[in-house]
Amino acid sequence: MNVGRNIGVGRGWVGFLFAVSAGVAGFGCNAILGIDKDYQLGGEAGSGGTLPGECSVVSDCESTVLECQTATACDNGTCVFENASDGTPLSTQSLGDCAEEVCDGNGGTRKQALESDVPNDGKVCTIDTCNGMTAVHTVQTSVPCYTGASGTQGVGVCVGGTQACDTEGNATGACVGEVVPTAEICASPFDEDCNGSVNDNCPCTPGEALKCYDGPPSTEGVGMCMGGMQFCNADGTGFGPCAGQVLPQTEECDGLMDNDCDGLPDLSDGCECVGAVEDKCYSGPPGTSMNLPCQGGTKMCQPNGKYGVCVVKSRLRRRSVVLGPMRVATALRAVQDCRAGANGLATVIRSLADRWQLTRPATST
Ligand SMILES: [Ca+2]
Ligand SMILES: [Ca+2]
Ligand SMILES: [Ca+2]
Ligand SMILES: [Ca+2]
């Protein structure tokens, strides 16, 4: 800081100098001294205010540049100022002029070079610099370019390119060599949409194998049922059909498999019989099958797992010979319930024989 009496001007002095110079030079003393015209006199003439060249209190003193000069005292009617150090930056600056406005140490201001205060000419092909306090815009022959979405350059397959420049510093032509985001290709091991994830939102990786089974889960691995494999298709958009799986079928009385995969084998799952089996059969009341002419038969298992009709190997055919003209069918109708037994049958036959006037073979006496 330096303190001087010759830089700042008291309000009283302004009035005094104005009065002196007005009639001599023909222009205002403010112009001569470079003083703001906004100064207000300490008092009006004849109103008992401060006289020219005087200050009464320090508040009567006002500097030309408030930031660079501060009134510190009113010394015997003269303003005393303290000047800010040379190089003290002003609070308000012009941007992009390669310069900084600072106090000059004498209560005034000056400009000094500031390399960081680079002006921008708005052209992509120029490099903007400061040479001293002079702006320099150096034109390049080409510049980096990228037209993809912000944040995708350098991610995944996306890279920037190069664009040519004209002599005016403007970019011209296409951005050569750039790779911008495209739809993700599931069949590739790259991040085409450049979101940082490889094959995101892809159902599967081409060729990927997966166990599969389309039947009810509880039937897999039961009876004849088993799971298969499915493979991701070539473009990675999904899996193909489930190959090799065996699903539940209608139960077959085949004696081989639990076809419907419910865990129940044929004979426990609706099949009366399996294979070429034969069984005895008799549909009459219990206890009557051995009473002639009633008799049981046999039944054969059919391919559908049911027994066929009950087949009786008739023994009465031979007896019909013995009975002669009397038909066996008639006799059968007569003893439908077979409860008569062998003796009952003989009684019937005898009565029938009498009716038809048949006689027993003659016996020798
Ligand atoms: Ca991909
Ligand atoms: Ca991706
Ligand atoms: Ca079966
Ligand atoms: Ca079954």
In the residues, how many domains can be counted?
4
Distance between the termini: 182 Å
Query: How would the global form be characterised?
Result: rod-shaped
Ligands bound to this protein structure: calcium ion
Number of strands: 16
- Which stretches are low in confidence, meaning pLDDT under 50 for 5 or more residues running? 1-53, 316-326, 358-365
Structural class: alpha+beta
Helix amount, in percent?
A: 10-25%
Order of helices and strands: EEHHEEEEEEEEEEEEEEHHH
User: How much of the residues is beta strand, in percent?
Assistant: 15-25%
Give a brief description.
This protein is α+β, with helices and mostly antiparallel strands and 365 residues long. 13% of the residues lie in helices and 20% in strands. It has four domains: 3-83, no CATH class; 118-197, no CATH class; 203-271; 284-365, no CATH class.
